[in-house]
Structures are given as structure tokens and as C-alpha cells.
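Model the whole thing, not chain by chain.
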Amino acid sequence: MNKHLWQQKWVIGNWKMNGSLQENQQLVQKIHQNLENMDSVCIGIAPPTVYLSQIHNIVKETTHNHIHTCAQDVSRFDNKGAYTGEVSAQMLQDIGVNIVLIGHSERSLYFNEKNDIQRIKIENVLRTGLTPLLCVGESIKEREDGREKEAVAYQLSILKGLKTQYFAVAYEPVWAIGTGKVANKEQIADMHQFIYDEILSLTGNNANIRVLYGGSVNENNAAEIFSVPHVDGALVGGASLKYESFANIINAAQKA
Ligand code: PGA
């Protein structure tokens, strides 16, 4: 585990179900060639699983600042076996993945993944020496009812008792994902402080923590979001698919 990573700002592009061999090659090549001196930033790219090796082969040549290959998900099943369609944490590690997203709200919405499955996935990822990035965030209903912290605390509760001192979380209010609606600075500051406090109380004072914000982050709002206390980076969906916008967000993180 690279300790330096836990002092950097993380900017991770979550491509979701987007990309093609040709588009990926151009985009990642450009990032690789132009963003080598961003030494305060941990840059990550999370493409669809079929493209992970392609991305890893491009970024592994990076010398100054390693660009991390990230997976959007992992199987709940460990190692290998008769689980058609599944990809294990060991396989991700084998092809050079560093960071694995766990529990993105789209996984919960469309695949009904809840705390129990997320916990198993995190354990699998940790066992292989990779870094899990747990996604949490309240629905619009939970926020309107004033239950946003209760919702986030419940999702964070799976961190208790894990065999690690390193905790990476992305706070993504569900109502801000892909909607163009960003949480305001007060909402972000309040929730990020809360998440830090929760992680420390669940896991002890030795925890190394990164809390990323996600949900409609773009090149125009990134600098302001990075200026909020306890914002250690961003998980970027739509704006990570174009070089200019992703590069501007990374630049904002470098300056923050
Ligand atoms: P968005 O997605 O930036 O397109 O809102 C963020 C995410 O879902 O991680």
C-alpha cells in the first residue's frame, strides 16, 4: 500500500457502461501523455470490465504519477469456480487493477446489492491486497425526510471490523448522480465531516481516510468542491468521458 496515496486528492473517472477500444485508446493516451506531473493527485480510470487490460497496458508505462486502473465492481464469489459471468478480486488483481468500486448506487438500484453483499465484496478485495472504494449516499426521499445521515451511517456500518487501516469512501447523493444537481458546499462539508467521524468511531483512530465527493462534478464546479474541508477528491461520471473536462478537474485537484 502506497502511503502517499492517502495524502493525495483522488480523481477517479467512472466510465459506467461507456467506451470502445478506439475511443479508450485516444482518451487514455492523452491523459497518460499530458497529466504526468500531477503529483498531488491520484488519477484513476474505471472502465467497463472488458477494457481493464487495455487501460492497464496504456497506463503501466507512466513513470511520474501512476494512473490507477479501477474496477467498477467485483464478484461476491472468491477466487474461481462455477459462477457464470463473474469476475473475482483475484482476477482483477492479476490484470493490474488497484482500486475497486463497491456498492455504487446503480448497483444497488439495478442489481439490488445491499450491505450484506457489499461487505463480502469488500472483504474479497482486501484479501487480494486491492483498495476498495465504498460508495454511499442518500436518496432524495431520505434527504427530504431529514434522514440523510441515518442512511449514510447505515451504509458505512459495513466498515466495522474490517482487517485494514485504510478506508476510501465516495459520498454520492443519489439525487446528484447524472442529474446536473450538485449538493451545495454546506451539505458537502456537513456530510464529509460526518463520514470522517463515523469511520473513526467505527474503525479506530489509526484509520487513513479518503472521502471523495461524487454527483455531477464537472470542470466548472470542481475547484469549489475541492475547497470544501474533508473533500479528498471526486468520483466523476459523465465529465470523465471527455479529455478536456476530465483534465480540468484533475488540474483543479492539483491546485487545491
Ligand atoms: P456523474 O456520476 O458524475 O455523471 O453524476 C457520478 C457517479 O455516478 O459516480
